[in-house]
Amino acid sequence: MSDHALLEDSRDRRTPEVEGHGVPIDLVDVTKRYPGQQAPAVENVNLRIPAGEIVVLVGPSGCGKTTTMKMINRLIEPTSGQILLGGEDVTRKDADQLRRGIGYVIQSGGLFPHLTVGANVGIVPGLLRWKRSRTSERVDELLELVGLDPARYRDRHPRELSGGQQQRVGVARALAADPPVLLMDEPFGALDPITRQRLQDELLRIQEELRKTIVFVTHDFDEAVKLGDRIAVLADRSRIVQYDTPAEVLANPADESVEGFVGAGAALKQLTLRRVGSVDLDQAVTATPGERTEEVVARTRAAGRQHCIVLDERNRPLRWMSLRDLHRQTATLAPCARDDGLDVVGVQSTLNDALDTMLTSSHGVVVVTGRRDTYQGVVRVETIMHAIQELHGDPSVEEGARR
Ligand SMILES: Nc1ncnc2c1ncn2[C@@H]1O[C@H](COP(=O)(O)OP(=O)(O)OP(=O)(O)O)[C@@H](O)[C@H]1O
């Protein structure tokens, strides 16, 4: 696709009201030759990354993804070519100043172990000489944004956090000075699948609000499909084999190498394109502690269900309760703690995430939550099977859907 076409396309996709704070990034004939190396690590790359979009660089190990990304904030200097940020040549800027305007998140979180969470997040505002009160307000705001309670986590040290929490702090730190550009180098690569999925969901939620220009490097094609507005599939020396929307890459892989990346089950991968929030959610029977048990039983029976879901006073799901569990209750439903094993996905999750969650727990249903973990509904395995059949173009399903 030509640069011009790309620009037109991105304009079509975004209304002015949601035009964010990001700036476009242009790589023009960029080459990097490491000293003592015969072949360049990156050769003649031309790439336009539109403002406010997530562009994912995906490709085999050693193809030059990290080198390409690090040239944008000049952690690596290009041998030749130009990199423009909002039309300005990055090599004309002071490197330190440039980096303060570009958030950077790496795999291990990169937190300073001897500093508290708050101090880690406040580093760039500190360098920018913000007033202490402004920095501390900003730190709390960012911890909230990435889903960490400031009162609980602000004064902890990184070693007192889980890997996923450290990574959240890494994202908060990168966003501290509100940079228009965020570079993320395999930020979720070291996390377990469930935590990775949660953080991907968080990133999409944050991006909906902030509309940064995000360059994201990953090995994981499913991650690229889930997060990317566009995917750049790279081969050796960062040669761009295909640069397109995830739907296009899945439907029309440019060549055999891209097909290899898409891998087996391309149709199934299209589940990654559909968000849980985009399907009609089923409603389970809900109940809250303090209700009369008899009424909950009657409601569950009337709905022809065997289970209801208990919500707390802020509408957050706590646990499933079977009719048998209900019969063991006293006249009113007793307060209960949240079941750690409860299968929950956010509205930003993909149908693929929901299916994965079901397959690992072998329950045929997952609870869906929205803002502040509030209950939105449930997705059943039948809904996902239906979506798969739709993807395969089964006419009887479409007929059924119209009815
Ligand atoms: N400092 C360096 N000196 C010499 N060669 C390097 C240096 N850094 C990277 N390379 C080489 O440049 C090429 C691209 O490396 P790069 O780290 O950008 O790839 P990558 O796609 O990010 O790999 P991975 O997915 O494994 O992290 C590789 O062949 C690598 O060996």
Q: What global shape is seen?
A: globular
Number of helices: 18
Ends: how far apart?
Answer: 39 Å
Structural class: alpha/beta
Output the radius of gyration: 24 Å
CATH class division of the largest domain: Alpha Beta
Largest sheet: 6 strands, mixed
CATH architecture annotation of the largest domain: 3-Layer(aba) Sandwich
CATH topology of the largest domain: Rossmann fold
Total DSSP E strands: 16
GO molecular function: ABC-type quaternary ammonium compound transporting activity; ATP binding; ATP hydrolysis activity
Protein name: ABC-type quaternary amine transporter
InterPro entries: AAA+_ATPase, ABC_transporter-like_ATP-bd, ABC_transporter-like_CS, CBS_dom_sf, Gly-betaine_transp_ATP-bd, P-loop_NTPase
Keywords: ATP-binding, Nucleotide-binding, Repeat, Transport
Kindly list the characteristics that best describe this protein.
403 residues; alpha/beta; Rossmann fold; CBS-domain; 6-stranded mixed β-sheet; 4-stranded antiparallel β-sheet; 18 helices; disordered N terminus; binds adenosine-5'-triphosphate; CBS_dom_sf; ABC-type quaternary amine transporter; EC 7.6.2.9; transport; ABC_transporter-like_ATP-bd
